Amino acid sequence: EVQLVESGGGLVQPGGSLRLSCAASGFTFSSYWMYWVRQAPGKGLEWVSSINSGGSITYYADSVKGRFTISRDNAKNTVYLKMNSLKPGDSAEYYCVRARGGHLDAWGQGTLVTVSS
Fold it and tell me: What pLDDT is recorded for position 101?
């Protein structure tokens, strides 16, 4: 069974940092691109970042470029999202997603990030 379990969310002040983790199981993690997608309350899904299977290629939404860093440890079957200089607009449920052939075919349950003073 494919499982993606996010952790690391919480309440942080503006300008603060968090690191999200996503532990994967049930599939060959090192063979897949992985994505982070977020959804703010009352809004649609927003792609945040993605990383290739080997970790050498990364992409970011303009809204987070320069502040967020995606990485992965294939030995630990884990993908990370380090978030710096957080803004209230970054408040959202953050989802770890597996990509296959360009399709997002497996989602975690999400971890909530709230940026507020």
Answer: 84
Q: How confident is the model at residue 71, as a pLDDT?
A: 98
49, 81 contact by CB (below 8 A): yes
SS (H, E, C) 31-91: HCEEEEEEECCCCCEEEEEEECCCCCCEEECCCCCCCEEEEEECCCCEEEEEECCCCHHHC
Secondary structure (3-state) at 8: coil
CB atoms within 10 A of CB 23: 16
Give 13's DSSP letter: -
**Closest of 46, 47, 45 to residue 34, by C-alpha:** 47
In this structure, are strands 103-107 and 111-115 parallel, antiparallel, or unpaired? unpaired
In the three-class reduction of DSSP (H, G, I as helix; E, B as strand; rest coil), residue 113 is classed as strand
Residue 60 CB burial class (10 angstroms; 0-12, 13-18, ≥19) = middle
Give the separation between CA 11 and CA 65, rounded to whole angstroms.
Answer: 21
The stretch 72-98 carries a mean pLDDT of 98
